[in-house]
């Protein structure tokens, strides 16, 4: 049976080091299986988050060979096994222990976003062609890999002034909901700092759900912010036509 | 007490943050109560997120003849009439409102051509009844409930596990637990507690369930003196992945068959013809699981010991649209393109029909102030659950449990907790660290899973069940000597050491109940008693703690009113299914 060497970060907020573990490789095995092997046979206190092991819950995010991935969907046979497979925690969030990071900041951002607010007296009819683009955003499994890879968060740590791709996707789902009557452009501009995104598309590249985060969520939202705050002619016309 | 612990106080403490727990919390908050929700994982990662096929509600959007009476009849027949009839009635009557409410909170279901919620066919449902979002219905549901709860100001204790319930006299008074992250202890004072901790599937080897499904809520309730019921009825979903080894057990949604997928054996025979010629591939899960198991056992299985499930006769774009996560799951994990060829599938431990015995109207257990909803509760599904009835169960009875828990809390006296009991709860958790020698928890867990898989699986025999009880007793002795390495900081070995205790309690209840029921009915199949027995037709097994021993007794199934009995005697249930369901959208 072939073997893989898993080079796993062990440590906490104060730092740590990578430790090598030899793991037997079975057909179709994923990185999370290998981590479970380590837990079950070599290192019982290795800290890993996981739930569904089927790419549906977004719990097992980590950086495999330097790339943000769901470990449950990363097959060992897709990686070069002649060298160690490195598994490190997401860099954009504080490490708690080993591969487990403190992602609570994301939950605090979510709380700032006004929920779905149906227009008063709306009829509860919706058509599939109006839902397709919103359902794309609703596929998000909150793995936070997009947050991890976003340089505004990862390299510049602007968590106080920036919401990150996950929450632009969330706002887009609300703003484009056919029956929603709220407006969240001021929130996008002032609190979620959408202007800081310079559309490098790193988030789109790592999304395990293939959501076109940049093209379908962020750019249309940026346009809405521009329309509402930086377009004097449009603003004049809207005032003239009685729309605030 | 050797160390400090934090204390929180709520009117209602909800344990579990899947569909049932969140719906209970939302309802309790809406009543103005103080509510705390405790969950072992991060918010939004509970098992509900993995639900795929849909939520059953007789809206009649696609098949206009559908109504609650037909849904009630299907649920009762699927459960072989062991269901609590009143729960089945409430469920069928209220699930429509619960689905519409989700939509009003922002959920976006797939649509019919005239803008209504689209519904698909599923096993055992007379009509196309499952409201869905492709094959990620559970994600839509949990995200909607999560956001609703967050904006109502829910207090969530994430990555926190409860290990003990406290009582004042006969009534529930609170709970003890630990933070998974730091390993610190936490005490909750609560006038009402709602258990919404889901199922027990992690005690089997081949399972669709995650690490969280260790029967905690059922074991906590049992230890607090509550009755468990129908514990012999464990659902093996007919279609889990069988290859490659690492993915074994991962769920393949019944929606594949709902959308027209067919099952064949290695000779290409549509074998369901021999097991249920009328319903074929959309027979109930107990029947299909046994059929696949039998085909494999008798040598007609696929290369990796399963059956073929094929949807590739449908247009590729349709398959990708209606079953997107199945498409990706097979492509990425098994190198199979399901738009071009068949999947290999076999049974996987999936769901627990049994659980905490509750009152149909209030979801209250036999312990005052202790409620249960969702998979942790028993009664609605009887001997076998229909697909799609779980998500609706979560909403209907989650809401009712939340309402009743608030009402009960309002009339309850103030609670006080005994420091000695808190101290003992803390010491129990620390013992595995103190042992100089002892066994690693992972090895005990692997052996438990192997024994349950081989001795208490789809088909059961008295001798195997007796052996299983002896094995469980030995595993309990080993678990009592479990030793944990490392610190209390996010230590999965330590967490598993505690979860083993819950699993060993519930598997004993499953095995004892299975031994008692000397017949085959629904999901409980005895090779030594292969037929249903009239003597067992109207009895539920009830499990209760008697000192240190586990006692199983029988309780008569409640008599159904005449008008509901008449509904069941009408086999067609008021309408018939069109022979070839046609998709409403393309």
What does this structure look like?
The complex is a heterodimer of chains A (244) and B (586). Chain A is built from ten helices and seven strands. With 244 residues, chain A is an alpha+beta fold. In chain A, the strands form two sheets. Chain A has a five-stranded mixed sheet. In chain A, a hairpin with a 2-residue loop joins strand 1 (3-12) and strand 2 (15-24). In chain A, helix 3 (128-138) packs antiparallel against helix 6 (165-175) and helix 7 crosses helix 9. Chain A starts with a strand and ends with a helix. In chain A, 48% of the residues are buried. The mean pLDDT of chain A is 95. By secondary structure, chain B is of the alpha/beta class. Helix content of chain B is 36%, strand content 18%. In chain B, strands 1, 2, 6, 7, 8, 9 and 16 form a seven-stranded mixed sheet that branches. In chain B, helix 5 (216-223) crosses helix 15 (492-516). Residues 572-586 of chain B have low confidence and may be disordered. The interface between A and B is large, with 55 and 64 residues.
Q: In a few lines, what is going on in this structure?
A:
The complex is a heterodimer of chains A (244) and B (586). By secondary structure, chain A is an alpha+beta fold.
């Amino acid at each position: 049976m072939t073997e893989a060497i898993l080079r796993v970060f062990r440590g906490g907020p104060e730092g740590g080091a990578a430790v090598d573990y030899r793991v037997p490789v079975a057909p179709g095995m994923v990185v999370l299986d290998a981590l479970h092997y380590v837990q079950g046979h070599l290192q019982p206190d290795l800290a890993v988050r996981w739930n569904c092991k089927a790419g549906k819950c977004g719990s097992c995010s980590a950086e495999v060979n330097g790339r943000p991935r769901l470990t449950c969907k990363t097959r060992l046979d897709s990686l070069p096994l002649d060298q160690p497979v490195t598994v490190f925690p997401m860099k954009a969030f504080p490490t708690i222990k080993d591969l487990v990071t403190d992602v609570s900041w994301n939950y605090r951002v979510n709380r700032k976003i006004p929920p779905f607010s149906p227009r008063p007296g709306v009829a509860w009819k919706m058509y599939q062609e109006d839902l397709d683009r919103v359902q794309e955003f609703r596929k998000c499994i909150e793995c936070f890999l997009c947050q991890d890879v976003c340089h505004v968060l990862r390299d510049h740590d602007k968590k106080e002034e920036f919401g990150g791709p996950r929450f632009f996707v969330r706002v887009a789902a609300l703003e484009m909901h056919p029956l929603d009557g709220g407006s969240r452009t001021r929130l996008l501009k002032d609190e979620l700092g959408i202007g800081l995104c310079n559309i490098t598309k790193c988030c789109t590249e790592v999304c395990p759900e293939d959501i076109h985060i940049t093209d379908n969520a962020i750019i249309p939202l940026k346009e809405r912010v521009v329309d509402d705050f930086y377009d004097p002619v449009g603003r004049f016309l809207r005032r003239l036509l009685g729309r605030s | 007490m050797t160390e400090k612990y934090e204390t929180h106080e709520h009117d209602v403490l909800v344990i579990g943050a899947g569909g049932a727990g969140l719906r209970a919390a939302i309802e309790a908050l809406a009543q103005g109560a103080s509510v705390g929700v405790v969950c072992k994982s991060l918010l939004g990662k509970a098992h509900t997120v993995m639900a795929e096929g849909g939520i059953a509600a007789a809206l009649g959007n696609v098949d206009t003849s559908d109504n609650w009476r037909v849904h009630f009849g299907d649920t009762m027949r699927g459960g072989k009439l062991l269901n609590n009839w009143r729960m089945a009635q409430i469920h069928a009557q209220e699930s429509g409102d619960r689905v519409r409410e989700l939509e009003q909170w922002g959920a976006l279901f797939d649509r019919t051509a005239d803008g209504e919620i689209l519904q698909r066919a599923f096993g055992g449902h007379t009509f196309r009844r499952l409201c869905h979002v492709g094959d990620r219905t559970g994600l839509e549901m949990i995200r909607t409930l999560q956001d609703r709860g967050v904006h109502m100001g829910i207090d969530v204790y994430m990555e926190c596990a409860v290990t003990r319930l406290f009582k004042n006299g006969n009534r529930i008074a609170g709970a003890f637990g630990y933070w998974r992250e730091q390993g610190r202890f936490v005490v909750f004072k609560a006038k009402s507690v709602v258990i919404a901790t889901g199922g027990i599937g992690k005690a089997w080897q081949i399972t669709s369930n995650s690490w969280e499904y260790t029967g905690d809520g059922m074991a906590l309730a049992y230890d607090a003196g509550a009755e468990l019921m129908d514990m012999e009825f464990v659902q093996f979903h007919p279609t889990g992945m069988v290859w490659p080894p690492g993915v074994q057990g991962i769920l393949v949604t019944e929606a594949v068959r709902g959308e027209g997928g067919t099952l064949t054996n290695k000779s290409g025979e549509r074998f369901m013809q021999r097991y249920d010629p009328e319903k074929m591939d959309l027979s109930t899960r107990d029947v299909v699981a046994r059929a696949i198991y039998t085909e494999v056992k008798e040598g007609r299985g696929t290369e990796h010991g399963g059956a073929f499930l094929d949807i590739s006769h449908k247009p590729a774009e349709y398959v990708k649209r209606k079953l997107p996560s199945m498409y990706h799951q097979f492509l990425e994990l098994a190198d199979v393109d399901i738009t071009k060829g068949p999947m290999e599938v076999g049974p996987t431990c999936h769901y627990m029909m049994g659980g905490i015995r509750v009152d149909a109207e209030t979801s209250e257990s036999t312990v005052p102030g202790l409620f249960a909803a969702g998979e942790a509760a028993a009664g609605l599904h009887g001997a076998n659950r229909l697909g799609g009835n779980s998500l609706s169960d979560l909403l209907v009875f989650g809401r009712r449990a939340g309402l009743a828990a608030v009402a009960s809390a309002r009339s309850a006296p103030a609670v006080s907790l005994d420091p000695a009991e808190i101290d003992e709860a803390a010491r129990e958790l620390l013992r595995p660290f103190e042992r100089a020698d002892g066994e690693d928890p992972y090895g005990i867990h692997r052996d438990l899973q192997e024994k349950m898989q081989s001795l208490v699986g789809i088909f059961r025999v008295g001798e195997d069940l007796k052996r299983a009880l002896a094995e469980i007793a030995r595993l309990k002795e080993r678990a009592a000597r479990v030793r944990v390495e490392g610190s209390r900081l996010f230590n999965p070995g330590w967490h598993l050491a505690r979860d083993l205790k819950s699993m060993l309690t519930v598997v004993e209840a499953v095995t004892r109940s299975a031994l008692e029921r000397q017949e085959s009915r629904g999901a409980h199949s005895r090779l030594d008693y292969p037929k249903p027995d009239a003597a067992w037709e109207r009895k539920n097994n009830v499990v209760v703690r008697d000192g240190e021993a586990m006692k199983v007794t029988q309780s008569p199934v409640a008599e159904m009113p005449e008008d509901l009995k008449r509904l069941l005697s009408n086999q067609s249930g008021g309408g018939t299914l069109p022979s070839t369901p046609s998709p409403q959208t393309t």
